[in-house]
């Protein structure tokens, strides 16, 4: 049996991603079993209901329980269940043959759940899946197609606001998934950091900057937020780390145009002059070719404490326009909480 490692030891990317997913489960379980049970309840509830399976998680404590021949005063029990995970980098990577072999690995008496984890939800409704579904039913196995996005949402949902350490862990897992291209939603995502003290620099140089040590998802769009609204929006064309020495940009992780270098230099100088911020080392820059004014308002009281991500499809039901100018105009009629 292969143990879960805190540091990846796999060369195959699917094993690498599975290991980090198991690590997320492991850390949530160690942190708080109640939170972990909430996570599993979300992931399993709908699938188990559809399959007609009833299940409970955790220790059950009852009193005055009949045994058939007597009634005991107290009774503690915990139902056993098994979960297997098959991970693919593409939903069409699952095959009926492989999943069928996985199903036969479950005990006919105990059954269990088989997660089919991929960036987009796997489709197992075709005729070539009929024998697999029949075998799963016979063994009491529920096939559960889930996405990395589903897992992240369920993990976030099982935590309270004050679970700061675990929220940071889930955020790091989310960033990992984004970096690996496992979140298709990123191409519709608006990254919105608070820019109350830097927005003039951000707008003038069409960029956002923050420490290189801060993990951020590979969102397609940048929103400059201040005064309770996203007031400017651009499409992120490059995310680059670099240093600035003697008025020159050096060590850039992406090839930069002369205009991009000038904008980075100007932002660095303005940040030092206006706020005393040193951007010459350990900084990452989110660069946009163009930026347009908009008014995507926060409708609830108070500002935002940290960055936010918005799936623009939830606010633009007619679709996300390709032109930034059109997107900026469409967002003027939308609000968020």
Describe the fold and architecture.
It comes from Bradyrhizobium campsiandrae. This is Restriction endonuclease type IV Mrr domain-containing protein. This protein has 337 residues and is α/β, with parallel strands linked by helices. The chain folds into two domains: 13-157, no CATH class; 185-336, no CATH class. Helices cover 34% and strands 27% of the residues. It contains nine helices and 13 strands. It has helices at 13-31, 33-50, 96-103, 130-139, 148-157, 164-179, 199-205, 258-275, 324-331, and strands at residues 60-66, 71-77, 83-87, 112-118, 141-147, 189-192, 207-211, 221-226, 229-245, 248-250, 283-298, 308-311, 335-336. The strands form three sheets. Strands 6, 7, 8, 9, 10, 11, 12 and 13 form an eight-stranded mixed sheet that branches. Strand 4, helix 4 (130-139) and strand 5 form a beta-alpha-beta unit. Helix 1 (13-31) packs across helix 2 and helix 5 (148-157) runs antiparallel to helix 6. The protein starts with 12 loop residues before the first helix and ends with a strand. The mean pLDDT is 89.
Order of helices and strands: HHEEEHEHEHHEHEEEEHEEHE
Biggest pleated sheet:
8 strands, mixed
> What portion of residues is helical?
25-40%
Strand content: 25-35%
Structural class: alpha/beta
**Number of spatially distinct domains:** 2
Low-confidence stretches: none
Q: What's the gyration radius in Å?
A: 25 Å
Average of pLDDT:
89
Q: Report the span from N to C terminus.
A: 46 Å
Characterize the overall form.
elongated
């Amino acid at each position: 049996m292969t143990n879960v490692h805190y540091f990846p030891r796999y060369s195959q990317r699917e094993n690498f991603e599975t290991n980090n997913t198991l690590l997320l489960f492991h850390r949530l379980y160690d942190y708080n079993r109640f939170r972990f049970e909430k996570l599993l309840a979300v992931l399993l509830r709908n699938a188990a209901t559809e399959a007609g399976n009833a299940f409970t998680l955790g220790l059950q404590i009852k009193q005055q329980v009949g045994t058939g021949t007597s009634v005991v005063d107290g009774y503690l029990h915990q139902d056993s269940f098994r979960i297997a995970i098959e991970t693919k980098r593409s939903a069409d990577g699952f095959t009926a043959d492989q999943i069928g072999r996985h199903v036969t690995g479950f005990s006919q008496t105990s059954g269990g759940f088989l997660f089919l984890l991929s960036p987009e939800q796997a489709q197992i409704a075709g005729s070539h899946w009929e024998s697999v579904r029949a075998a799963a039913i016979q063994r009491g196995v529920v096939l559960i197609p889930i996405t990395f996005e589903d897992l992240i949402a369920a993990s976030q949902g099982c935590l309270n606001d004050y679970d700061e350490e675990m929220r940071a862990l889930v955020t790091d897992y989310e960033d990992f998934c984004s970096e690996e291209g496992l979140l298709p939603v990123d191409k519709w995502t608006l990254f919105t950091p608070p820019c109350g003290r830097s927005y003039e620099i951000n707008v003038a140089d069409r960029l956002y900057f923050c420490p290189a040590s801060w993990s951020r998802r590979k969102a397609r769009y940048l929103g400059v937020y201040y005064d309770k609204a996203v007031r400017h929006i651009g499409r992120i064309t490059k995310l680059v780390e670099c240093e600035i020495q003697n008025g020159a940009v050096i060590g850039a992780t992406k090839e930069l145009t002369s205009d991009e270098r000038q904008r980075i230099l100007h932002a660095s100088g303005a940040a030092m002059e206006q706020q005393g911020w040193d951007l010459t080392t350990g900084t990452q820059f989110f660069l946009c070719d163009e930026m347009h004014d908009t008014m995507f308002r926060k409708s609830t009281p108070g500002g935002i404490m940290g960055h936010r991500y918005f799936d623009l499809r939830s606010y633009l039901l007619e679709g996300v326009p390709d032109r930034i100018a059109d997107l900026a105009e469409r967002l003027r009629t939308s609000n968020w909480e």
